[in-house]
Amino acid sequence: MSLSLFTVQMLNGLQLGVLLFMLSAGLTLVFGIMNFVNLAHGSLYMMGAYFAAAAYVRSESFVIAALVGIAGSAALGFAMERIVAARLYARDHLDQVLATFGLILFFNELARWIWGASPYYMNVPQALSGTVSLFGISYSAYRFAIIAVGLLVALGCYLLISKTRVGMLIRAGSSNPTIVAALGINIKLLNAAIFALGAALAGVAGLMSGPILSVQPGMGEPILITAMIVIVIGGIGSVRGAFYSALIVGLIDTAGRAFLPMLLRGILDRSTAQAAGPALASMLICIFMAAVLALKPQGLFPVKNQ
Amino acid sequence: MKFKLNRMIVLLGLAACGLSVHAQQAVKIGFLGTLSGPAGALGQDQYDAFMLGVEHLNGKFGGATVQVIKEDDQLKPDVGVQMAQKLIEKDKVAIITGVTFSNVMMAVHKPITEAGVVLVGSNAGPTPLTGKGCSPMFFSTSWNNDSLHESMGQYATDSGYKKVYMMAPNYQAGKDAISGFKRFYKGQVIDEVMTQVNQPDYSAEIAQLQAAKPDAVYVFYPGGMGVNFVKQYQQAGLLGKVPLLSTSTVDGTTLPALKEIAVGVVTGSPYSPDIDNPQNKKFVEDFKKKYNRVPSLYAAQSYDAAMLLNAALTKTGGKADDKEALRAAIKSAEFKSVAGPFKFNTNQFPVRNYYRVDVAKDASGQAAFVNKGVVLKDHADAYFKDCAMK
């Protein structure tokens, strides 16, 4: 294996990692602060992608698509919190899982009803449609953009959470929501704002994925499962944890898919390696999660002072 | 208002009487397909085209009024079996058509054919049903899974590609794709990569593929997987440099999501919207007018199923209650397929042409399918000899 291939695969892992971070940050905030299991987070990602794609098809401008995608999913997240989630905070997790699972079905059918069953069109913006040559292997310029946007979002989250008053409340809320409410903070508004922020982040992920993935009903589910694994590994409620573990999961998943079949071929015969490679690669992050949970049940970067 | 309401009730009553009179003569046909979920577009195409066929025949097959009852299998074999049982026992249909995916087909074909109901599959063609497991009650207007890929194997051989890199999802149809392609490909296969079903991102695999420097790449990624793969292949700068051959990857259901991104992809297909015959012209024109999209191969096969059933019921005088007579009529039915020459083999799968269909820009600058000629002419599948029927 050449160095260039290795570099490209690391970039692929990094790109998947930042995408997972944008999804899991919102998920972990809502779970950590409101103790609310939101399975419909993937639907917010899907709707973000649809909003952006629909705006892109009409305007042919990526900037407008970005604005519509992010604002649309934030608004949807806000509405979802007020209409559905707020009524469920006091109930147990099973009720929340059932209700938000219902929302998944609802949003998938809604998307099908509005935009049809076939995948929806969205291409990369003209300026980013080229490739960058890396020691003989071409790498999509758009994927570099995803990495850049992901890192910027991570930086933004860091500044918001560690340097602002809202961030202080978010951190306090994640440690002890009752005391925060007792201190006279409008916890309802804070909850809705956090939910909307999480939805906006999912919307950014949806917007950035739209041009590389197929925008279609159900696109949120496979990635939601990975995002769940990310927050479990990172430590529930911790955005910092979500960032590191998203990068780890992205790299492990990519490396597994790229290099595991190759390694297996060294010890097994070709056809067995061919069959076992992808199966093992897809299990890899789950095995990693199990190992983390066995050693550190709170996750790798749990919220402190809990 | 009151008067109007009364009149409405009378009218409704009359309509209901009319319906019940007709219902005695109507031939009931069950449509079973995947109509919801990510792959719902395929079943929807089948259903829409079948209904267009019914409409073209003024709602009558062989003079008998047709009543189509639609059920969604949700791409779940167990749901498919339930729905098939409902169609057979409750609705008492004589014929079931559709069935989008092979795994559902494998589950439903026995309950349907053993109940003495004729099954006309218009998409899924799993290998076991083509050979040893063939049934007198099962007809296909599509293909055996392998055949689709054989045409691209032949094309790769004809084009002189020495090293081909193959990718497919890790399930039965993906394995059929690889074996079908290899049956007709004479060069070297550098690697066969099986990915997870519904994997959204192929960046890792595409980087490996690029490093292997193949002459051509062959993929089978139906539905949204195909959109993902082709987008990412194009964005990696490979489309146009390394020929991308495929089957069921860029088709009528995915081209609208890809548009010019897919220009340059070569596909092997039993159907192309620009096949030049009068029945196809009418089909494509009316399908576009009615549903505002270009018909896919799934649509074409399902439209063919409607035309086949019409021809068969014409032979039986519009009667579907004598199973043997109906079966014989379907087997010998003559109809004009929108895809060109069509006849049943001994295993009741079609002997038909497979075309090379390119994605190219048409006169108006839109991405469209362009038929580049026949790759395999009057092609029979590789398994018909294992079928006990003669």
Proportion of beta-strand residues of chain A: under 5%
**Beta-sheet strand percentage of chain B?**
15-25%
Overall structural class of chain A, as computed from helix and strand content, comes to mainly alpha
Helix count, DSSP H or I runs of 4 or more residues of chain B = 13
Any idea what the radius of gyration of chain B is? Answer: 22 Å
Principal-axis shape of chain B equals globular
Q: Cα distance, first to last residue of chain B?
A: 66 Å
Radius of gyration computed on alpha carbons of chain A: 20 Å
How many extended strands of chain A? 2
- Biggest interface, which chains? A-B, 52 and 45 residues
Q: What is the CATH topology assignment of chain A? A: ABC transporter involved in vitamin B12 uptake, BtuC
How many domains of chain A? 1
Helix-strand sequence of chain A? HHHHEEHHHHHHH
| SS-based class of chain B | alpha/beta
* Secondary-structure element series of chain B: HEHEEHEHEHEHEHEHEHEHEHHHEEE
Calculate the mean pLDDT score of chain B and round it: 91
Count of DSSP-assigned helices of chain A: 11
Under the CATH scheme, which architecture of chain A would be assigned?
A: Orthogonal Bundle
Q: Roughly what is the average pLDDT of chain A, rounded to an integer?
A: 90
Reading side by side through the largest sheet of chain A, how are the strands ordered?
1-2
